[in-house]
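Format is sequence with structure; example below:
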Amino acid sequence: MARVLINEFAVAGKKVKRTYAIYGGLIPPYTMKIGSDKYIMPGWYKLDKDEELPNIEDIGYYPYKPKIDDSLKNIDSNKVYKVTSSKGDKEYQVQLNTSGSLECSCPGYGFRRRCRHITEVQSSL
């Protein structure tokens, strides 16, 4: 969820100045009025009654950036890794999916989204 961070500073003899920044989220900042209430969105930060709406250009925007899994950079995207089951009677396929994470054809992966087959492929590379 997006967070609105506020920075206040005062210049000698002048009114306190506020600056705003949006951290996280995927939606760029915008302002909204509902009745007499004013908000900075996303984040639903309610401005004081006597405070003016800030310019959109003055609101800092730092969008969410997903973490990149460095452990998968050695895995070939077109290769299918075959791993035998714990009983040794079945063979499961581990491969890189379109989102960039590993997936397995075993029933355990279908329930938990992780399994020992994926761990085995990651540790072997």
